[in-house]
């Protein structure tokens, strides 16, 4: 259970996920039912400013709270949802839940933080995604600036022209975007330039070795320099210790996300944290 978060355990093993077995179909129908019965929950992980450690935004991360199996991490069911149209439903649920949560936090009187939402590969080039956001922000002009999307580099490059179009249209209605897991796939730098994405998120695999592996060290440094030259902001994912923080600050990285600062947490915990944070 290497990637399982705190309080999560593996529902099925990895071989299971790779094969197209009847069990896979069973999981899919369980998930379909789970979405309908509101078994999905969002946890939120703060993203902090590198210079001060202060919270600047949150990333919404979905979990499946199965009545018998308990909390199931996304890596155990997102890949299955991605093979079917279920992923569109799942993403839609996440977007609506984030909006609902933001309205609740607003009502509770805490200072809102932008929340970024992971959008899957098959969804990012669909006009329906734009439509969903347009409809949601229509009566709530304040909202758009508190919603962001994250698309992995690999997802972007599957249909780069359409994905670029949708991201640019989202940008026009105030919803900004990040390129997730950057460095783990292949991006044409030409697209990066055409894209109105504000943020690059450096893949965790480079941060892991940033203080111990000269390749990771050099790649992370180069990605940060690239982002700066394109006037993009950079987030480093998976920061787990002070040494990594120090080095990333030296390289000019803007924002950091990782267990060293905060783990993903329930919306109640976020509320407590943001309430306390305000008075700092
Ligand atoms: P991601 O978008 O790259 O999210 C970051 C992942 O890294 C999260 O795992 C987070 O808990 C983990 N992480 C953060 N800091 C650290 C750290 O310091 N050390 C380590 N070892 N891990 C850290 P999580 O929540 O298990 O999510 C895994 C992936 O599942 C996400 O990767 C994303 O691709 C996908 N995912 C999560 N939520 C959603 C969602 O709502 N919709 C879609 N379509 N995909 C989602
Ligand atoms: Mg992400
Ligand atoms: Mg990532
Ligand atoms: Mg990832």
UniProtKB/TrEMBL annotation:
Whole-protein coverage range: 304 to 583 of 583
Coiled coil location: none
Parts of the chain that traverse the membrane: none
Originating organism: Marinomonas phaeophyticola
Protein name: EAL domain-containing protein
Domain EAL: 24-278
């Amino acid at each position: 259970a290497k990637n399982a978060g705190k309080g999560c355990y593996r529902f099925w093993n990895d071989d299971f996920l790779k094969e197209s077995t009847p069990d896979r179909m069973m999981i899919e129908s369980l998930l379909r039912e789970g979405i309908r019965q509101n078994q999905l929950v969002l946890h939120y992980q703060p993203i902090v400013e590198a210079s001060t450690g202060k919270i600047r935004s949150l990333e919404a991360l979905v979990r499946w709270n199965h009545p018998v199996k308990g909390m199931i991490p996304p890596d155990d069911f997102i890949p299955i949802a991605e093979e079917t149209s279920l992923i569109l439903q799942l993403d839609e649920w996440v977007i609506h839940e984030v909006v609902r949560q933001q309205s609740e936090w607003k009502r509770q009187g805490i200072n809102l933080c932008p929340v970024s939402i992971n959008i899957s590969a098959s969804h990012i080039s669909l006009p329906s995604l734009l439509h969903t956001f347009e409809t949601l922000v229509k009566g709530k002009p304040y909202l758009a600036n508190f919603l962001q999307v994250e698309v992995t580099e690999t997802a972007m490059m599957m249909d780069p022209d359409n994905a670029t179009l949708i991201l640019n249209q989202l940008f026009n209605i105030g919803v900004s975007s990040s390129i997730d897991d950057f460095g783990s796939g292949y991006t044409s730098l030409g697209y990066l330039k055409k894209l109105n994405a504000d943020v690059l998120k450096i893949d965790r695999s480079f941060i892991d070795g940033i203080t111990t592996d000269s390749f990771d060290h050099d790649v992370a440094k180069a990605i940060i320099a690239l982002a700066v030259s394109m006037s993009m902001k950079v987030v480093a994912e998976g920061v787990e210790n002070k040494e990594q923080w120090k080095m990333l600050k030296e390289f000019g990285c803007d924002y950091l996300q990782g267990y060293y600062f905060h783990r993903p947490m329930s919306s109640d915990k976020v509320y407590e944290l943001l309430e306390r944070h305000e008075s700092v």
